[in-house]
Design brief:
This protein has 401 residues and is α/β, with parallel strands linked by helices. 35% of the residues lie in helices and 18% in strands.
Length: 401
């Protein structure tokens, strides 16, 4: 199960610390297998090393081992920067401290964790050979930082550390997020409209479509799937109106015309805007499209990289639709991967993908980062519904007050 769980539903637990603090030994102990090279030679770990694991009762997680915070030289600086990038998508950080105790590097990162609202647990490693320093314990207690003493090498308190991680997991991982279950009742029909175009993966549906169907079944509903061309026929065949129609954002205008106003309508992207982030914030961000001016830069953000097709949604379609809607000369910049560009403040608007390959905490952190840096943010589906003139209709099934 752990190996097959989608990356977007995993909690990310990142081990950071100075070189030779015992991070690699600790990740091996946590995962109960040898996945990282352990050596007395400082700087053995270069690039972040990931390991999937089933941390019950929490569920599937990913542990990351990272390079030392005190790595030196030009290459060392790049390794530390790679660690910082992993931290941008971290849900719980384990700050591993060796026998030398808390130093300037650790305290700097603790300030970063606090600023970025990343839960952190200070793990004093090597309890078999070193005693806890009183001033380090007092510092943690004074700053209300959870801490514990372990020995990765001797296997001491590893299970206690796992329990501590579970206790400090973000609420998003201990409370089941709502996708569609609160919108339907047992026996209700959910009609999913799925276009099959050049961007559709061959032989399968995309993850948001699969998850909506699965959640419909888990809610004891009836899930039906049609292409947009068969929508009218499908509606005419049903003896009762569906409780909800869910469509792909790219065909929302046509679907909205075919679905009577009496039938609740939304999109997969709108559902995932709520499931993965903050729908109200993303709707508010979409409204700033009306105030875009000539020369404004619009950031198109994708959490994962993929091969762009001729009519790519983020690179071609959405920029075209927004340009047509605003009538402005805008500059659209595509940015793929886990991180935002350093010049985020230079953008008038950030438009994010649906986030199906990142978890909810990561998406919420991205929304918070944009807000903190004064950049309105929305997502693909919400933006499309806005420029197509159907935003108010597709958010109507939700209480955004």
């Amino acid at each position: 199960m752990s190996e097959n769980a989608p990356r977007g539903v995993r909690m990310v637990i990142t081990l950071v610390g100075r070189r030779n603090a015992g991070k690699s030994s600790l990740i091996n102990a946590l995962a109960e297998q040898e996945i990282a090279i352990v050596s007395e030679q400082p700087g053995t770990t270069t690039d972040p090393v990931a390991k999937h694991y089933e941390l019950l009762p929490l569920g599937p997680v990913t542990f990351y081992d990272t390079a030392g915070l005190d790595d030196t030289g030009k290459l060392g600086a790049q390794r530390v920067n790679a660690t910082k990038k992993v931290l941008s998508r971290t849900d719980v950080a384990l700050l591993v401290v060796g026998e030398s105790g808390l130093g300037d590097a650790e305290r700097t990162f603790l300030r970063t964790f606090h600023k970025e609202t990343i839960p952190v647990i200070v793990v004093f490693n090597k309890a078999d050979v070193a005693c806890l320093r009183t001033d380090d314990v007092e510092f943690c207690e004074a700053n209300r930082i959870p801490h514990m003493s372990v020995s990765a090498k001797a296997g001491l308190a590893i299970d206690d550390l796992k329990k501590t991680v579970i206790d400090h997991a973000p609420r998003e991982f201990t409370e089941e997020p709502v996708l569609i279950g609160d919108l339907i009742n047992e026996g209700d029909t959910v009609l999913c409209v799925v276009p099959i175009d050049l961007a559709a993966p061959k032989g399968r549906l995309i993850l948001p479509q699969i998850q909506v169907l699965r959640d419909t079944l888990d809610s004891d509903g009836i899930g039906l799937v049609v292409k947009e061309r068969e929508l009218e026929h499908a509606l005419s065949m049903l003896s009762d109106e569906p409780a909800l129609v869910v469509t792909d954002s790219q065909v929302v205008l046509k679907v909205a015309a075919d679905v009577p106003e009496t039938i609740p309508l939304t999109t997969f992207s709108i559902l995932f805007a709520r499931y993965k982030g903050n729908l109200a914030s993303l709707v508010q961000g979409a409204k700033t499209i009306d105030s875009l001016q000539d020369g404004d830069r619009v950031l198109m953000c994708e959490a994962c990289s993929h091969h762009a097709v001729a009519d790519d949604i983020g690179r071609v379609k959405i920029p075209r639709w927004i340009t047509q809607y605003t009538g402005k000369d805008l500059k659209f910049i595509m940015y793929s991967g886990h991180d935002f560009p350093e010049d985020l403040e230079d953008y008038a608007l950030a438009i994010h993908c649906g986030g199906c390959m990142i978890n909810r905490t990561a998406m919420l952190r991205r929304i918070r980062e944009c807000t903190r840096r004064g950049v309105p943010v929305t997502n693909y589906g919400v933006a499309i519904s806005k420029v197509q003139g159907v935003l108010e209709r597709v958010i109507k099934p939700f209480d955004l007050e």
